[in-house]
Amino acid sequence: MARQVGVVCTSHVPAIGKAIARGLQQEPYWKPFFDGYHAVRGWLEKVRPDVVVLIYNDHGLNFFLDKLPTFALGAASQYRNADEGWGLPTIAPFPGDPRLSWHLIESLIEQEFDVTTCQEMLVDHAFAVPMQLLWPSGPPWPVRTVPVCINTVQHPLPSAHRCLGLGRALGRAIQAYDEDVNVLVLGTGGLSHQLDGERAGFINKEFDLLCLEKLIGEPEALTRYSNLELVELAGTQGIEILMWIAARATLSSSVAQVYRNYHIPISNTASGVLVMEPRHARSRAA
Amino acid sequence: MGTVVFDGVEAQKGYALNKMCYSFNRAENRARFLADEEAYCAEFGLTPQQREAVRRRDVLALIRAGGNVYYLAKLAGIFGLDVQDIGAQQTGMTLDAFKAKLIQAGG
Question: Is A152 exposed, middle or buried (0-12, 13-18, 19+ CB in 10 A)?
Answer without folding.
Answer: buried
